Amino acid sequence: MTEAKDGRTTSVRDVRLVSLPRIDIESGSITAINSGTDVEFNIKRVYYLYDVPNRSDRGAHAHKELFQLILAASGSFEVELDDSVEKKSFILRQPDEGLLIPPGLWRDLKQFSGGAICLVLASLEYNESDYIRAKQEFLKYKKG
Ligand code: TYD
Questions:
Q1: Is the CB of 49 under 6 A from ligand 1?
Q2: Ligand 1, atom 2, residue with closest C-alpha
Q3: Structural domain of residue 84, as residue ranges?
Q4: CA-based angle 86:89:93, to the nearest 5?
Q5: Ligand 1 centre and the CA of 84: distance in Å?
Q6: Domain contains 5
């Protein structure tokens, strides 16, 4: 299972776009995400970013153990990932498409559209000691 992956050795090539199930009915659409099946980790926490002011950037950190599935529940935004060697960028704009991010990757979230909602499903509860918030510290961490 992906959850065993060590954050020091992950690369941007481990990031995947995941197609989520959707049910389209005349009165609107539904996407349901089941822990362990539609997303391969057990979901411990759900949070969302909203009311992000124009030109605001979020993220600017890495996690040591946390897996996340990030999606645009509304609007769009860009997620730029960095493994200290390579960078990869994704634009999220579909509520039925999630970005699966393993631990050990620096992320910058930017270019939020008006009304964007960034929904995050996370494998662990909030724990500040799982964060690496300084880029220099991240580069040192990735060197082992
Ligand atoms: P942070 O993860 O740095 O936000 P982002 O990556 O979206 O820019 O968190 C911002 C603040 O919110 C920080 O003070 C910690 C707090 N926070 C919680 O208390 N619980 C949580 O689950 C999250 C994600 C953040």
A1: yes
A2: 59
A3: 12-143
A4: 160
A5: 23
A6: no
Q: For residue 141, what is the enclosing H or E element?
A: helix 135-143
**pLDDT for 20-51, tens place per residue?**
999 999 999 999 999 999 999 999 999 999 99
Please tell me the distance between residue 25's alpha carbon and the centre of ligand 1 in angstroms.
35
Do residues 119 and 46 lie in contact, with contact meaning Cβ atoms separated by under 8 Å?
Answer: yes
Q: pTM of this prediction?
A: 0.95
pLDDT bracket for residue 54 (50, 70, 90)? confident
Asked whether residue 108 is domain-assigned, the answer is: yes
List the residue whose alpha carbon is closest to atom 6 of ligand 1.
Answer: 59
Give the chain's domain count.
1
Give me the CATH number covering residue 41.
Answer: 2.60.120.10
61 part of a folded domain: yes
Alpha carbon of 57 to ligand 1 centroid (Å): 13
